[in-house]
Amino acid sequence: MDYLLRDDAPFSDELWEKIDKEVVKIASQQLIGRRxxxxxxxxxxxxxxxxxxxxxxxxxxxxxxFGDSETTEISPSNRKFVAIPMIYKDLSISWRDVENSRQMDxxxxxxxxxxxATVCAKKEDYLIFNGSGDLEYQGLLNxxxxxxxxxxxxxxxxxxxxxxxxxxxxxxxxGIYGPYALVTSTDLYTQMQRLQDGTGxxxxxxxxxxxxxxxxxxxxxxxxxxxxxxIAPQNMDLVIGQDMVTAYIGPEELxxxxxxxxxxxxxxxxxxxxxxxx
Length: 278
Prior knowledge:
The chain has helices at residues 13-30, 33-36, 95-104, 111-130, 159-173, 186-191, 203-210; strands at 39-40, 49-55, 76-83, 86-93, 147-149, 180-184, 215-217, 226-230, 236-240, 245-252, 255-268, 274-277. The chain is 29% helix and 26% strand. The strands form three sheets. Strands 1, 4, 9, 10 and 11 form a five-stranded mixed sheet that branches. Strands 5-12-8-6-7 form a five-stranded mixed sheet. The protein folds into two domains: 2-139 and 235-269, 2-Layer Sandwich (Major capsid protein gp5 fold), CATH 3.30.2400.30; 147-230, hypothetical protein PF0899 fold (2-Layer Sandwich).
């Protein structure tokens, strides 16, 4: 990975290993989209575009004794190539901190690395759920062709459970089966943390049982919104070119300027596998 210019940095292999571990730790803690999406890749930093196919989803199979009946093939009906965008955030580590760590044999404070990784993780999730207006990329919450349910008041009664069940019913009616995942805004997630009258069971526990536990919240989901998706790879996936990594930019006023970067793209192959509650 010569493009990362790590050999130009006055850092030991041990320090780079600590930086990499910190980035991975932050990403695993923060990223929500990757918890529900199948990963396609990593393909390599040099891969700049990927195909996005539209399929004919005639899922009616045939049954006979000889296998000689005509059947509609499931195959791409249209293909386009989409650029894989880059997400990145620059940071700086003081040369004095590096020297102090070396001279005093103390751990180097990697707070700036952690903060930059957090920013990149949030931006990745924003791209997945909201898309990018500047790049004209659609996200799970606004893709054309998704199914939309007018959300009821989740502060009352069984409304959250009933809405989710209604969303599952919509998906199943179109032949779109699980596994399913629910991601909500932080306010709706809080509204599900209440006991159902006469049961002693939290509303969120009932919903988790309904969809096999895949219930998450994310700060990038706008208030009072939620999304239910069928996360099978034929419906959607996350393309990764270069996974989140740290590069060395160079010295700047003696300090060490670095960049955390990744290249990722959400591929929505079947928009109707998404139900939004708005």
